[in-house]
Each structure stands twice: as C-alpha cells, then as structure tokens.
C-alpha cells in the first residue's frame, strides 16, 4: 500500500484525479445556465415554428424543410426534460448532460444560421420566380387580352388578308423557310411591284404560320426614311401596351427586347416590310437572342449579309394570265371579250410584273377593242422593265396607263395622291376638301367619290373602309381612306415634276432634319451672294425671294426638323399640306402671305400629339375655308371669319375650347361644318358654340368623355346633320333637340350610356334617317315618336334587334322603315385610334 501511494506514479494518478474532479465541478456549475439557455431558446422557437407551419401549409410548400427543424427542436426538448430530472445525487451525470445540452444548442444554432437561411433564400428565389410569372400573366392579360390567340397583329391591327394569285409556289417556299429551325433573318427580295408586301401579308394568314407563331405575328412598314423609335413605338401599340417615349434608339431597342420576352412563350415573327437600301444596320438592331424568334424582311435589295435571300421572280406565263384575267374582269358578262392571242401578247409585254399586270388589266377593263390593240402595240414597241436596273422603265410604262383615264380630273386627282407620305392612309375627306377647291367638285363628296372609285377600278389606289357607322348614301366618309403602292406614289410624284420648280402646279418638299433640296440650297446661296454684294456696295438690298406659282404646296418634315424655313413666296398656293412627325411644330412665316390659301391640312404622323405654334398667322387669310388637323394640340383659336369647315381628328381640344379668351362663335362665325373625331379630352362643347347659327353639319364621334349636349342646341336653326355616334359616356341629350327644324339625319349609334331620348323627339318633322344601333341602355322610346306618322316622307330607322324591339311597341307608324344592317365585324377601325 505504501508503495502504491508513494513515488511518481501515485502523484501522477492523484494529479489526473484532481483535474477530473475540478472539471466535473466546473461542468456541474455550468449545467444550470446551459439548461436555462436551452429552455429559453426552445420557448422562443415554439410559436415561431407553429406560425411557419401555418404559412407553409397555406403556400403549399414542401414539408421536409420544416420537419427537419421540428426534429431538432423535439430532440432538444427531450434532452431538456431529462436534464431537468437530475438532482444533486446525480452530480456525476451533470457534465455528461451539460455536454449534450451544449452540443444540441450549438447544433440548433448552426441549423438556424446555415441550413434555414439557405432554405429561406431558395424559397425566396422560388417565390419571386412565381410572382414574376404571375405578374407576366397579369401584364399579358391587361395589355394583350384584347387579342385572340390566333389573331394576327399588324399594321395598326391586323393586315387584311390579300389576294395572292399566281404565287402559290413562292408562298410555300417562304413558309417552309420560316417554319424550319435555325433561320433568324430571312430576306424576301424582288423588283418594285413584284408582290413582296402582298406575299408577306398573305404569309401572316397561312394556317401553318398562324399555328406556329399564334398571336405573336407583328407587321411593321419601314419605308424609305425609317425612324427606329417610331417603329418600336408601333410595336408597343400593336401589343396594346402604353406607348412610351424614348430618348435614344438604344433605349428603344432595350425596351423592345423586354417587351418581346413578355408577349408570350410562343415563337415570334416580326415582318419588316419595305426596307430600303443601306438599312441593314436597322435590321441588325431588331435581332435578339431568343428561341424561335424570326424576322422576315421585304426589300428591293437582297441584303446577303443575312444569308441567302428568297428571290421573288417574275410570274410565269400561266399565273400571269390568270392574274390579268382577274383584274381585267374577263368573264362571260364582259361587254368585250378580247381574242386570246391579244391577251397573250399584252400579258407577255408585262414581263411577269404583278403590278404592271394589275394596272394594265384595270386600265383595259370594259374597254373597246381599239384600246386593247393600242396597248398591245405599245408593249411590243417598248421594254417596260429591266430587272437589273432601277424602276425608271416601269414608271415610264405605268405612266402610259394614265392615258386611259378619260377625265382630266382623274389624272389630276391621281397626282394629288403624291402629296402625302408613303405607306400612309389618306382620308377621303381630305381629298374631298382639296378637290372641291382645286377642281370645282361638289362639296358633299359625290363627284369626288366617283373619281375615287374610278381610280380603284383602274387599280391605281385601294380603298379602306373602317367602321360602317353610316352608309355612303348619306355622303359620310369619315371612315374611308385610300392607300396606294409606293411605286404608284412615285409615279404620281414623277408626273408632277414635268416643269421647273417655279412653274409646277404641285410643289412637293420632303425634308429630313435640316437638309434641303438642291433648288432650296441654290436659293440660299443666291441670298448669301446678294447680301454680300449689298455689304460691299454699302447699301442694303433685300435678297430675291423664291417665287413659287404652285397651286398646291406639300411639305413633309421629320422629328429633327428645326423649323428653319426658306423664305418663299407661294402667293398662288390654294392648298397647303403639312406632314410632320415632331412634338412641336411652328407654322412657316410665309403662311400669312398666302392670301389665296383655301385649304390647310396638318397631319402629325408621330405617336404623340404635336403642339402647334404661330397659329395666329392664319388670321391674316381671308380666303381660308377649310382646316383639318390630325393628332395635334389645337392652340387658341384666332379669328377665322370665312372658315366654313373645321375637322379635328385625334386632337387635344382643351386649349382651343376651354382656355381660349375668344368665344368659338366669334372665332368662326360662318362655320358650316364641324367634325370632331377621337378627341378624348372633349367633355363638353365650348360656351357660345350654339351661337354659330350657320352650322349645318355637326359630327362628334368616338369622343368617349363627352357626357352631355348644350341645353340651347335649338339655336342651331340651320343644322341638318347631327352625329354623336360612339360617344360612350353621353348620358343626356338636350330636350331642345325638338327645335332643330331642319334636321334630316340623327346618329346616336353606339351611345351605350344614353338612358333615354328627348321626350319631344317626334317633333323633328324633317328627319329622314335615324341611326340608333348599339344604344344598349335605352329601355323605351318616348311616346312622341308616333308623330313620325304625320310625316309626308319616309323615315328610316337603322338599329339592331334590341332597337327594333323598342319600335315594336309602335307598330302602326306610316312611312316608318326599320332597317337592321348586317353586323360588320371589321378591325380596320383600329387604324383610327392610335394615340
């Protein structure tokens, strides 16, 4: 024993024992605080975990993540319960349980600080992805919900499906190229008038193309002087989105990329029609790294940098003959059926050009043998087309087709089409206004429309009729537009250039930025020389101004134009056409000198309304009879004492009608016709409006905020036509309507909020036509309508089935005719709503 407790061995053992005892005592002392810490942690976590479980079930999240956390807490709680049962008699067990408690606490903290945070971040990312998906769906529903899944979005809506005779083979070839994988840009090329645009539009309607791309088909016309920001704005408009303003082209392209990724997960087809030479860079900007995103380019240039183009060759003889027969209307009802050999020779002379075939066939339609024979001889003696050269020969050839126009007015009216920008619709009402003054045609448009139909018959222009609010028999043409092929537009301009600048009947000026035509630059140089000579001679002599004898002056400018006008003297001008694209525009200073000016037409082709300045210059023009403003903010009116017609389309009218110090009746005391269309800031007519007693026609259409008509409407004692169609917020018509003793036509079509008609509407003793289709809020008619039975003339009521049912309560009204026209499902009216 002594040996056992003596020496180094005993000392070492006793030292270890003492150390172990001291460690045990220390851990025993730490057991209590560690236990308390664990208890506090578990108490704090318990309600949080329960709340997490509730959200987890609500969001239908996976249970594995929360179950792992619960397991940690459950094990910790079990250890705590066991530890709480220890007493002083179990002193030696304290260190073991204290270590377990400490490890469990550290493990729980590590799980909360690492695993749970990682899981939370993953959940957050997943939830954000789902939220983005929801937002995308909501955005598409809000912005694109108006489009059907198979609808084609296109030029201000859906491009009409054209006839495409004789192009089955190139159509199928182009279709296969677009359906197959790999191609991102495909160029369809051919000579001018070869049918590129027609084929591209037809392709958009092909069942297989619609099946692949669904509603994500976009059709944009680029034209000669493209503006990238405007093109992108057009695409936003086609998607039904709010059209943004862009500071730079780069911003526009970046926003477009985001837009295209939002419109849907289906493939996308973008058609860039009529791309001119040197515009490859513009096409490049529209290329995005997206799956199944295709661009179809139509151009007279092959653009081989984008790969092998699809060449649209001239038509073969068989399809060419079929196309010619179609446009010449060669059927058994024709007054003259030409010999087959004669047709064959004429078709051969057209060299397979669809445009030439169309125009020549139209010019010979219903014509006698001599006309056909003369055309054959001309074609045999002239080469109309050289496919490797410019379009000059084709233009010269098409010019011969104008000789078939027997009326000199038809030729003059055709040349007037060149006054407007390419690829833009021309309102028929503009043509009526111009031709009434230029060619002494009637003001109601009857003869003008006859000429329009003649030019359509000759295939020189196309007619677009949007909503059929009223028929042509009412001589209402606000929804009629014409368009022409750009090659035919070039022909119209070419016809106008046969004389020197100073002697032309039509002077057409097209300005890009601050560049000037050669003759304009020459005039400026002449002025500089004159001023220099004056300085040297020591006396001031005013430089010679450019004398212009044109009856028609057309000036087109873009958004970069600075209004730095040349000092012209257009003293003979009767028509001034201003085509602009800028947000601000100043009338030229020479306007006040245009003493013979009768018609002013200002059209803004940009996306945002333009502010017009120097409008007061018009107050100097005593002969000004007609003004048409489109997409501008109408400034305060000046005194236009001889103005007979004012047309406002898509304009802001607040400054003119509400903020102007001069009353409208004082500004335009002799106004005969007022047309206000798509002016959505118009809530009421201006004060004093009903004092314009000369007014005969009042048309307020598609002004959705207009809610009531003036109470003193009866003052318009000469009013013959009152149109209030598609004013959706109109809730009241003045009872004073009964006093309109000369009213012949009343149109309240599509006034969906109008609850009732004036009580004494039956007192309108001269009423001949009453349009009330789509007035869904009308529940009954006033009893006074029986007074229509006293009329000595017939009265037509044009309505739908619901309207006819209301009139069914008055079955015995003599001379009353109920007409229910066929519903016209037509999206062309979207052309007029761009804002």
UniProtKB/TrEMBL annotation:
InterPro entries: Apaf_helical (IPR042197), LRR_dom_sf (IPR032675), NB-ARC (IPR002182), P-loop_NTPase (IPR027417), Powdery_mildew-R_dom (IPR008808), WH-like_DNA-bd_sf (IPR036388). One of its GO terms (molecular function) is ADP binding. Pfam families: NB-ARC, RPW8. Keywords: Plant defense, Repeat. Residues 1-150 form the RPW8 domain. GO terms for biological process: defense response. Belongs to the disease resistance NB-LRR family. This is RPW8 domain-containing protein.
